[in-house]
Design a protein that fits this description.
Chain B: GO terms for molecular function: intramolecular transferase activity. The complex is a heterodimer of chains A (228) and B (1177). Chain A is of the alpha/beta class and 228 residues long. Helix content of chain A is 35%, strand content 27%. With 1177 residues, chain B is α+β, with helices and mostly antiparallel strands. Chain B starts with a helix and ends with a helix. The chains are: A alpha/beta (228), B alpha+beta (1177).
């Protein structure tokens, strides 16, 4: 079990009149190698859940274990390390640093990791660029890349540290259908080839269908959790 | 035919003899005779000088004094006086006149009822048999002359003591001698106060009234308070030698005190008696007073005229004695008299008089001390005396004797003998004295005086002299005084006076005027012309020589002839006549000596006869104080350590760097009282040369010594000295030898202020911190950071500009404020550290309103006394008196008015904060040479003054010996504080060539320990306030000036620092703003970094690295910007201070790094505190 969440809740605007639950008492158990789609209407709490699972946000209460480690008792740097080594993020808005080249962006997790960048790792990354058809875009800045290309750079960035979990928040939300398919194929490929746990949020029913497990969220709570 | 020839010849011879009787009559006086006479007279007069250096004639007055003594001694029942009284009685009995009484002269002449009566009393009460011939005869004389009731009031009073006369106070016209004691309550200046009567009358009067009260024995208890006042008065008026002004005063006061309480006042009475005894000749003759100041002054003047050197030892000894005899307090005169008059002898400190003061001044002005400090002391004594005389001038323009009176007092009626109006003889002497001080007929004082003189002349053309017989004396004094002061001697009234004098010449060529009778009431002596006397002849011809020696040569030569013919073989003159007046006529046996000598010498001068007085070559005073300075360089700061290590010893050492390779070694014997036989030797260790060896004992232990030493070359950086001092501590026999090793090292000055150092230290610390932070950071991260920076140019540039502007503004304003501050400081440093200036005026430079409102009476007279006081003060190194002077200076045909300071060369080099540029500093014995300030050298004239150039200062040519470097700072002068740049310095010894100024304008004091300047200043103030109460003066020193000025500039400073802080804040906020914008703008980036798992530190590092880089670059740019701000402002404000580059640079860098970090880290930290998702959102 790679992720184990028990009764995690996120309360926004706590102790004020506008207090509301972003996520309420969600319990999940995610096994290694699962391909999970999180679905639900807008504002249902998908992203909140996603952020909490990716340690980008902290549950107001509840328990969260990733790789058997209690995330809630971790300090900043432990969480950073966890994210750096175990989790790769893919965002709808790509989240590339505009002042860095595609390669530098992809290398960022390595750069900030304890081990840093060494030549073989860099070679590896360049290999990935080749693999995802970006060999000509290595030194281009994000502004010069198309959305699909940017998202692929983001995927490479998510992969460079060979994480166990890939978290993707509407990875294809900003892409046209063709590019969406390509990007999702890439994700699926990662899941299948490397056996990584991939959790993604999407509104695209086509993509939902490809998941091995579909978690449906409404009003902050899991309304259905089906394994296909 | 032969007969005819013979008879013709006889007729011719006869006719020739008849026509020209003079040739047959007298041979003219030859030059040899004159010279011989003068030499003899001078030698004789010199022989009369006492061991103490003064002249003191044995005065003969009349038998009355002897009688007073005898009566008093008897009445007071003084023990062990039998022999003395008998001797005196014997003298009196032997000196009875033929007419059966005693008179105004020792012997001969007519007798006087008062004198006869008192002598009789003296003899009778002392047990002389009344049946003896003399007393019988005198009883008849008294009876024939109206009895005791016709005698004077003192005589009657003495009779009443023995109950031989009743109620003397009821006698007519006696009120003045029995004043109501309530006058003691009156203010000195009151018209009826006891001070309105002449000194002698006042001293007698109070005692007389006390005697009266005790004789009357009425109402003693009612008058107790007044009597008590009188008692106090009498006690306090006894002089140090025991006397009350005169013999009569002494007798009366002793009796009065005896009446009050004979036991209580026994010590005073015995002291008075001691004085009386000491003034009695062995034959029993009692003297009235001794007039040593008077005699000594006249003797000095006469001897000086006889061509004895102005620095002859004997004369200087006499002058020193006179100087010491000057009264220090104002005396019991009228009121608030300044101190500085002379009285007639050294003990009489209560009654300085104009006559003695004038004579003393004239005599002192005739002499010149070789010792500078004594000469200076002398001049100060003269100055004080002169001030006194000027104060004492009566409103009618003349001078009285003891008092000054305002115009209210009307002397049209003949004055009483106790009154003190202006008199001609004193006025004449004062004019002569003022002339010797440089006064001329143009001065207002003199103008007023001439009015008086004209008014006082009698119908015949003569003036009445009160203290000499009488018209000859007064007229001579006036004519000499007028001539000395430069009055036109052809004026009508002068001619009238001269005619009168000439008309009085006797056939023997001399002049003589003699006592006829004495008006008791008016105190006027009536005289008649009679046999010639040498002194009166001398008075007449001295006056004639002053008026017109050519015109009256005949009369003068006849007088000279009379003098020479009457000179005794031993060189002096003798005659039986009384020529002096002290209310009664008296005889001063020295009068003929010194006046004749003076007259003969004047004549010799007119005739151009060179007199080679043997005494001229008498030993000159050797001057032990001269020139202790071996070299003249000054200044400080070389070996502070060395000094402190040596200070534990009894000697103080100082080292002052005096030039590039020179320094001045100073040695001070700090404990002169404890040490004996101090010998200090300084060796140069490298070659064991003795650099300086000094024996403090020969210097009377009072001085410092100094020696200029130099490094042999530029390269020599060190000099090792060995200082050995050998001394014996007082009370110990054993000799102690201390030796000190001193190493002098040249110092290289790097001008870094403390603030700069602190800032640099902070920068270094920051850099160390940064280094530690980034030590383990991989290079890629740094590369990454710079890549990032380089990519986002606009953001970087904006942040950078914000930083640069902030830093420029802050660094600029702070260093600008600092520049102003430094400039001010520098300005006042040029004034010289450790230098205190004493000014005889109030220099009020403080901004606070004056706290004291009362008026002090007069400025402090900066004289040698003050200098001596200052020298005594602890921590005072040297004291340099300065006289200011302003005159026209001509250089190569151009003239301009310049400021000149005469400086004491002993200490000048230590005082001046100046450094010599060209030539060398003035040294003693240079004569008329000058050092000129920079501005004088370069700007005063169109051509630059170089060393060796001749300047014409006033009328004298002066050689330029050195030119000073320019001093920074203020230029010009505030009252007596003058910037050295605009000064011409001349030696103080030369001052009298330019100006007759006998006091200093400024005294500069240099302290040993500069850190104690403030304490020393306070001490100076306290001591001067103490010694010279209510005198205006002020002291100024660097820190005081600085503090007062910074007080003034406080607001300016406040604004500057406010602007500095404001700039710091604004730029800080600006920088923070830029950083916040930066951080906000890159929130996403930070979020991404977080998301990809960058540790806190890593994000921090990248951001800080970025900011630091911006800060450093911004700091450097800010330095340039700040420098520009400073330079532009300075250019506009015309301030030429070199900006402190180090300070601005380090400040900029500090601001760059510190502010950027301080204001940058806050938003960074804030951003990092959030959840990553918030950064990403």
């Amino acid at each position: 079990m790679i992720i184990k969440a028990r009764n995690i809740s996120k309360i926004y605007n706590q102790n004020s009149e506008t207090e509301f639950f972003g996520v309420r008492d969600v319990s999940l158990e995610i096994e290694k190698g699962e391909l999970i789609a999180i679905v639900g209407p807008s504002g249902a709490g998908k992203t909140t859940l996603f952020n909490m699972l990716g340690t980008l946000d902290t549950p107001t209460f509840g328990q969260l274990k990733i790789k058997d480690k209690n995330v809630l008792s971790m300090d900043y740097n432990e969480k950073s390390k966890l994210r750096n080594e175990v989790i790769g993020f893919i965002f709808q808005q790509f989240r590339l640093i505009p002042t860095l080249s595609a390669l530098d962006n992809a290398l960022l997790p390595l750069l900030v990791s304890e081990s840093g960048i060494d030549l073989p790792k860099k070679e590896n990354v360049i290999q990935l660029f080749h693999k995802y058809g970006l060999k000509n875009q290595l030194n281009k800045y994000p502004g010069k890349l198309s959305g699909g290309e940017q998202q692929r750079v983001a995927i490479i960035r998510a992969l460079v540290n060979e994480p166990d979990i890939i978290l993707a928040d509407e990875p294809t939300g900003s892409l046209d259908s063709k590019m969406s398919e390509f990007v999702f194929d890439t994700l699926q490929q990662i899941h299948e080839e490397d056996g990584k746990t991939v959790i993604y949020i999407t509104h695209n029913m086509n993509l939902v269908k490809k998941a091995s497990r579909i978690i449906k969220i409404e009003d902050g709570s899991v309304v259905s959790d089906e394994t296909c | 035919m032969f007969k005819k020839v013979i008879s013709f010849s006889l007729i011719i011879i006869f006719v020739v003899l008849l026509v020209n009787p003079v040739t047959a009559n007298a041979a003219p006086v030859t030059e040899e005779q004159i010279e011989d006479s003068i030499v003899k007279a001078a030698n004789y007069l010199m022989s009369l000088q006492t061991d103490r250096g003064l002249w003191q004639a044995g005065i003969r007055i009349n038998p009355r004094e002897t009688a007073y003594f005898m009566v008093t001694a008897k009445y007071l029942q003084i023990e062990d006086m039998e022999n003395d009284l008998q001797t005196s009685a014997k003298w009196l009995l032997e000196h009875i006149n033929k007419d059966g009484g005693w008179g105004f002269f020792d012997e001969g002449g007519k007798s006087d009822i008062s004198i006869t009566a008192i002598v009789r009393l003296a003899l009778i009460v002392n047990g002389v048999d009344e049946g003896c011939e003399e007393l019988k005869k005198s009883a008849v004389f008294v009876e024939n002359n109206g009895g005791i009731k016709n005698s004077d009031i003192f005589c009657k009073t003495f009779y009443s003591l023995f109950d031989l006369y009743e109620e003397p106070w009821e006698s007519p016209n006696s009120e003045i001698f029995f004043p109501d004691l309530s006058i003691l309550y009156l203010d000195n200046t009151d018209e009826h106060s006891t001070y309105s009567s002449m000194a002698w009358g006042r001293e007698a009067g109070i005692a007389m009234s006390v005697i009266k009260e005790y004789k009357k024995r009425e109402n003693l208890h009612i008058k107790a308070q007044e009597l008590n006042l009188a008692e106090q008065w009498m006690v306090s008026h006894q002089l140090e030698d025991g006397c009350w002004y005169t013999l009569l005063g002494t007798c009366l006061n002793m009796i009065a005190l005896y009446e009050i309480d004979s036991v209580k006042h026994a010590p005073r009475i015995s002291k008075g008696m001691k004085w009386i005894n000491s003034n009695r000749d062995p034959d029993g003759y009692q003297k009235r007073f001794v007039l040593s100041v008077w005699d000594t002054s006249f003797a000095i003047s006469a001897l000086r005229k006889s061509n004895i050197d102005s620095s002859a030892e004997s004369l200087l000894k006499a002058a020193t004695w006179i100087m010491n005899a000057q009264t220090q307090g104002g005396g019991y005169n009228w009121s608030n008299v300044p101190s500085g008059g002379w009285s007639y002898n050294e003990y009489n400190i209560l009654y300085p008089d104009n006559d003695d003061t004038a004579l003393a001044i004239t005599a002192l002005n005739d002499l010149h001390f070789t010792s500078y400090s004594t000469e200076y002391k002398k001049r100060m004594a003269i100055e004080k005396g002169k001030e006194w005389l000027l104060y004492m001038q009566n409103d009618d323009g003349g001078w009285g004797t003891f008092e000054r009176f305002n115009g209210d007092k009307d002397y049209k009626a003949p004055p009483e003998s106790t009154e003190d109006p202006s008199v001609a003889d004193v006025t004449g002497h004062v004019l002569t004295a003022l002339a010797s001080c440089g006064y001329t007929v143009d001065d207002q004082v003199v103008q007023n005086c001439i009015e008086y003189i004209k008014k006082d002349q009698n119908d015949q053309g003569a003036w009445y002299g009160r203290w000499g017989l009488c018209y000859l004396y007064g007229t001579s004094c006036i004519l000499q005084g007028l001539s000395d002061i430069g009055y036109d001697m052809t004026d009508e009234f002068v001619v009238k006076a001269v005619d009168w004098i000439i008309a009085q010449q006797n056939n023997d060529g001399g002049w003589g005027e003699h006592f006829a009778w004495w008006s008791e009431k008016n105190g006027i002596t009536f005289t008649k012309m009679g046999p010639s006397t040498p002194e009166q002849t001398a008075w007449a011809i001295m006056a004639l020589m002053k008026v017109d020696s050519d015109k009256y040569m005949n009369e003068i030569e006849e007088g000279i002839k009379y003098l020479i013919e009457n000179q005794e073989e031993y060189g002096g003159w003798e005659h039986p006549y009384y020529t002096v007046l002290g209310l009664n006529p008296y005889k001063n046996p020295y009068y003929p000596h010194y006046f004749s000598l003076a007259a003969l010498s004047d004549y010799a001068k007119i005739k151009g006869i060179a007199i080679n007085t043997p005494a001229e070559n008498g030993e000159l005073r050797t001057d032990q104080e001269t020139n202790l300075m071996i070299d003249k360089f000054s200044y400080e700061d070389v070996a502070e350590d060395a000094i402190s290590s040596i200070k534990k010893g009894v000697l103080n050492f100082s080292f002052e760097e005096t030039g590039k390779n020179k320094f001045l070694l100073g040695l001070y014997n700090n404990s002169k009282d404890e040490l004996e036989d101090v010998i200090v030797t300084v060796y140069d260790e490298s070659n064991n040369d003795i650099l300086v060896a000094y024996d403090f004992e020969t210097l009377k232990g009072e001085e410092r010594i100094s020696k200029s030493l130099s490094f042999s070359s530029e390269k020599e950086n060190q000099k090792n000295l060995k200082i050995v001092s050998t001394y014996t501590a007082r009370g110990e026999k054993r000799e102690i030898s201390d030796s000190y090793q001193v190493t002098l090292t040249k110092e290289r000055n790097v001008d870094i202020s403390a603030s700069t150092i602190i800032i640099i230290v902070i920068i270094v610390l920051l850099c160390v911190c940064l280094f530690i932070i980034f030590k383990n950071t991989n290079k890629q991260l740094i590369k990454f950071t710079f890549k990032n920076l380089g990519r986002n140019r606009s953001r970087t540039i904006l942040t950078f500009i914000g930083i640069v502007i902030g830093i420029s503004a802050t660094a600029g304003s702070i260093s600008l404020g600092q520049a102003f501050d430094q400039k001010l400081r520098k300005d006042f440093e040029s004034f010289g550290a450790g230098r205190i200036i004493v000014l005889p005026e109030k220099v009020d430079i403080s901004v606070s309103p004056p706290t004291q409102t009362f008026e002090k009476s007069a400025s402090l007279r900066l004289d040698d006394d003050v200098v001596d006081e200052l020298k005594k003060i602890e921590n005072v190194k040297s004291v340099c008196p300065v006289i200011n002077y302003e005159t026209t200076v001509t250089f190569k045909g151009e003239s301009t008015n310049c400021f000149i300071q005469f400086v004491d060369l002993d200490t000048f080099h230590q005082m001046t904060p100046l450094k010599i540029d060209k030539g060398s500093v003035l040294e003693k014995g240079d004569g008329l040479t000058a050092n000129v300030g920079y501005d004088i050298s370069t700007k005063a004239f169109s051509e630059t003054i170089e060393v060796g150039d001749k300047l014409k200062i006033g009328n004298l040519e002066v050689n330029t010996k050195g030119v000073f470097k320019e001093t920074d700072g203020l230029s010009g002068r505030i009252e007596s504080i003058v910037t050295p740049n605009i000064v011409i310095y001349l030696p103080l010894e030369m001052v009298n060539k330019f100006v007759s100024k006998d006091y200093y304008d400024v005294i500069e004091v240099k302290v040993i320990d500069k850190n104690k300047t403030k304490a020393t200043d306070e001490k100076i103030n306290n001591i001067l306030e103490d010694k010279y109460p209510n005198r205006i003066f002020s002291t100024v020193y660097t820190e005081k000036l600085q503090s007062t000025v910074s007080e003034i500039l406080y607001q300016f400073d406040l604004i500057i620092s406010f602007i500095g802080v404001f700039c710091l804040l604004v730029s800080g906020i600006g920088i923070m703003n830029m950083v916040i914008v930066n951080i906000t703008e890159r929130r996403q980036e930070i979020g991404i970094m977080m998301a990809v798992g960058a540790p806190y530190k890593t994000i921090m590092k990248t951001l800080i690295l970025e900011l630091t880089f911006l800060g450093i670059i911004g700091g450097i740019a800010g330095f340039v910007g700040g420098l520009l701000v400073v330079l532009i402002t300075q250019y506009i404000a015309q301030i030429l201070t070199v900006p402190n580059f180090a300070f601005i640079f380090s400040l900029s860098l500090f601001l760059g790094i510190a502010i950027v970090l301080f204001f940058g880290v806050i938003p960074i930290k804030k951003a990092l505190k959030k959840e990553p998702i918030e950064a990403l959102r």
